[in-house]
Amino acid sequence: MAFTTLRNMFSLFTFAATFSLLFNNCYGFNPKLLNASLAASESGWSPAGATWYGSPTGAGSDGGACGYGSSVEQAPLSAMVSAGGPSLFKSGKGCGACYEVKCTTNSACSGNPVTVVITDECPDCVSESVHFDLSGTSFGAIANSGQAEQLRNAGVLQIQYRKVDCNYRGTTIAFHVDSGSNPNYFATLVEYENGDGDLSSVDLKQALDSDSWLSMQQSWGAVWKLDAGSRLRAPFSIRLTSLDSRKTIVATGVIPAGWEPGKTYRSVVNFNG
Asked: What is the average pLDDT across 200-205?
């Protein structure tokens, strides 16, 4: 009787051990990996690759694929910008999004987070699922004091990142009218949006007595267009919807009657950052 019980217990132990081995091998279950994943999720940080481009103390490129032009070098962006790989650039829909980035994998890394804005595209940055091609200025900002050059010589860095709200204190949303705009066609660059920073949709309403909103199409980068096919009646109000939170804000009458291509018109509104 005792022998039978012992044999049954041994069989049960063998079955449990075999099942555990098969489960681990087939499904890749690893308690250490699970704990690490949970820790990463709780902190909000995720892994990414990072490189830099352009001048060591510059803004990467002159405006880049989002269309911000010389604004990338001026406050409030102040060259703290980045080109994004496909998962960040999102065919231009990611333009204007803000991210905190930090590095700890190199002795020259400070470990302190800095905030960068997506202003350009890096289409070939696909070796990692998420990749930041930082401006020289922002890459240097994640280094210890006096060690920026050492970090720039490190090649591809493994960093951590998380999306954060943009917060341009004291700055309202601006609309730079595209130089190709005319009475029947209107296109504008949208910049300095607080909160999400990136947009899912833009709509235009003609003269103040109009009730209907016309959907604009993304032209390229952060530029949105409306090809009306007939003369548009200014002043224009512009409605913006953020990409992730789907918040909406209206810049009433922001484009005046007598607007001119190439000019920038500043609204009096912004999302809550």
From this structure: 97
Pick from 74, 75, 271, 273: nearest CA to 173: 271
Write the pLDDT tens digit of every residue in 116-174.
Answer: 999 999 999 998 999 999 999 999 999 999 999 999 999 999 999 999 999 999 999 99
Query: Are residues 112 and 102 in contact, defined by beta-carbon separation less than 8 angstroms?
Result: yes
> For residues 212 and 229, what is the distance between their CA atoms, to the nearest angstrom?
16
Which residue in 166, 167, 170, 172 sits closest to 254, CA to CA? 172
Two tokens, residue 208: 């103040």
Q: How many CA atoms lie within 13 A of 89 on its CB side?
A: 25
HSE-CB of 190 using CA atoms within 13 angstroms: 39
Read off the pTM: 0.83
